[in-house]
Q: What sequence folds into this?
């Protein structure tokens, strides 16, 4: 029991340090600001371009303007930089001097980043919705509870959190920041689409069960894949496994 209390104390201390580190990085506030600007700006642009008819489809587009999502990409970069700054500037060794237990550091960083990513994506979705409401004179409120709107809104929250976890995992798995950033863009943009093309020709709807491929099932665009709940579990589960692999890598790698 005393050992468990000691571990909990270490985790709380590590989380406090991580929160201090996160909020003192300029990149944190720059990316957060860009997330809000992109969400509100795209929502306004969509209403101005497509707002002749205010309906559930317009409300859906306000929350999910299409893929690739600037919000998700920015959150993923924020995740990469969570570990990437340590790799680039050599701050991991001083950090481990203060927090010698690498598992405690990894758990604390993951928890703090998860809370921050979730907060940012929720704030951005709220900003997009408020922008859409103001731009339509409040007419959009009528469709707030439509199924397609709720699915896309929640889908973007899952996507933002999952892509943030994807970046977080790459940041710890790959000790080179440029390599982590390159992999972050190349895998969803080129590698998985190539795998999807092969699976679509040889295995029917199997491509809908790939991590990023499951997003269509989550928001109701694709049929024949997992259920919305299953798609969310598949996507977030895959990213969680990547972070567990990153924890194992951090535990054994030479810093």
A:
């Amino acid at each position: 029991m005393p050992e468990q209390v000691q571990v909990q104390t270490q985790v709380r201390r590590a989380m406090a340090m991580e929160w201090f580190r996160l909020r003192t990085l300029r990149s944190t506030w720059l990316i957060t600001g860009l997330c809000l600007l992109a969400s509100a700006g795209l929502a306004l642009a969509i209403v101005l371009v497509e707002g002749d008819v205010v309906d559930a489809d317009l409300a859906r587009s306000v929350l999910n303007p299409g893929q690739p999502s600037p919000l998700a990409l920015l959150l993923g970069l924020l995740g990469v930089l969570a570990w990437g700054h340590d790799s680039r500037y050599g701050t991991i060794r001083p950090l481990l001097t203060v927090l010698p237990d690498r598992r405690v550091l990894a758990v604390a960083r993951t928890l703090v980043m998860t809370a921050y990513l979730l907060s940012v994506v929720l704030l951005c979705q709220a900003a997009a919705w408020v922008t859409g409401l103001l731009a339509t004179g409040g007419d959009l409120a009528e469709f707030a509870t439509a199924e397609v709107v709720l699915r896309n809104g929640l889908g973007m929250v899952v996507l933002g959190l999952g892509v943030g976890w994807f970046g977080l995992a790459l940041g710890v798995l790959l000790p080179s920041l440029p390599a982590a950033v390159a992999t972050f863009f190349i895998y969803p943009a080129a590698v998985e689409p190539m795998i999807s093309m092969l699976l679509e020709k040889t295995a029917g709807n199997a491509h809908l069960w790939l991590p990023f491929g499951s997003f269509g099932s989550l928001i109701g665009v694709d049929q024949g894949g997992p259920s919305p709940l299953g798609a969310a579990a598949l996507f977030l589960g895959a990213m969680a496994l990547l972070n567990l692999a990153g924890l194992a890598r951090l535990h054994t790698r030479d810093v």
Notes: The mean pLDDT is 91. The chain has one domain: 2-252. The two ends are 32 Å apart (CA to CA). Residues 120 and 209 are 27 Å apart (CA to CA).
